[in-house]
Design brief:
With 254 residues, the protein is α/β, with parallel strands linked by helices. 43% of the residues lie in helices and 16% in strands.
Length: 254
């Protein structure tokens, strides 16, 4: 068996817009349902969701026949957490709260086998199709996609240095934490925060790295795309369920 091609990694490298959906419900049934919706990527969150490794593996299995590339966000920039996520078959990782180039290099190392990194070796896990992928250990690094999340003033001051680290494929802006860092907690729409978000896209374009972001607001998503963001999550599974349920109940409870 040949190594699976990471369609998302190659798409963002080519500057092709990728529309995604955030997944926080920790359900393989939900991820399977939305994987057929036409999204380019699905974010499986373990940082702010009660999502543990067996459930993540089930979610990865559930999206195999859909249109979307799964991306997993570990709870932290931790070598062991990242190793375990890669071993169950994720090829794309979004590392939260990367503040500087050294932390970015640590994330890269965690996702790469030696000599490029420090990822621990197993030849029989799901990532290698249980040992069936030919030369997996030698080829795996080439299809790993590493995204790092910048979500503070301090991180934005180091943006070019972070983005320029070899092995970083894209930089994701966390609007909620960024707004808090700017003193506007709960208000990512504040003009100062929006100016910073636009500035990120401009600066990343100059260093040749794709920019990503999340917003459930259609007007904002279209504006971010116009500003140059390449991978944009336009909603969440939790939001879709809550909004749909509220709307349906309201129709009969007025």
């Amino acid at each position: 068996m040949e190594l699976q091609r990471n369609e998302f990694k190659h798409a963002i490298a080519a500057g092709k817009l990728q529309i995604g959906l955030w997944n926080s419900l920790c359900s393989n049934i939900v991820t399977e349902i939305v994987s057929y919706s036409g999204f380019d990527w699905l974010l499986l969150d373990t940082e702010h969701s009660p999502n543990e490794l067996p459930a993540v593996m089930a979610q990865l299995q559930s999206v195999q026949r859909g249109t979307a590339t799964p991306i997993v966000r570990p709870a932290w920039n931790d070598t062991v957490l990242i190793k375990r996520i890669l071993d169950v078959g994720a090829q794309s990782i979004l590392v939260p709260f990367v503040q500087n180039a050294e932390e970015a290099r640590r994330a890269v190392a965690a996702t790469r086998y030696p000599p490029e990194g420090v990822r621990g070796i197993t030849g029989s896990g799901r990532a290698s199709r249980y040992g069936r992928t030919k030369d997996y250990l030698k080829k795996a690094n080439s299809e790993i996609c590493l995204l790092v999340q910048t979500e503070t003033r301090e991180a934005l001051e180091q943006l070019e240095a972070i983005a320029s680290v070899d092995g970083v494929d894209g930089v994701f802006v966390g609007p909620a934490d960024l707004s808090a860092s700017f003193g506007h907690i709960g208000n990512p729409q504040h003009p100062e925060v929006q100016k910073a978000i636009q500035d990120v896209a401009t600066r990343l374009k100059k260093v040749g790295k794709p920019a990503g972001i999340l917003t459930p607001v259609e007007e904002e998503a279209r504006r971010y795309i116009e500003w140059g963001y390449t991978f944009v999550a336009v909603g969440s599974d939790l939001g879709l369920v809550a909004k749909g349920a509220d709307t349906l109940a309201a129709k009969f409870k007025k």
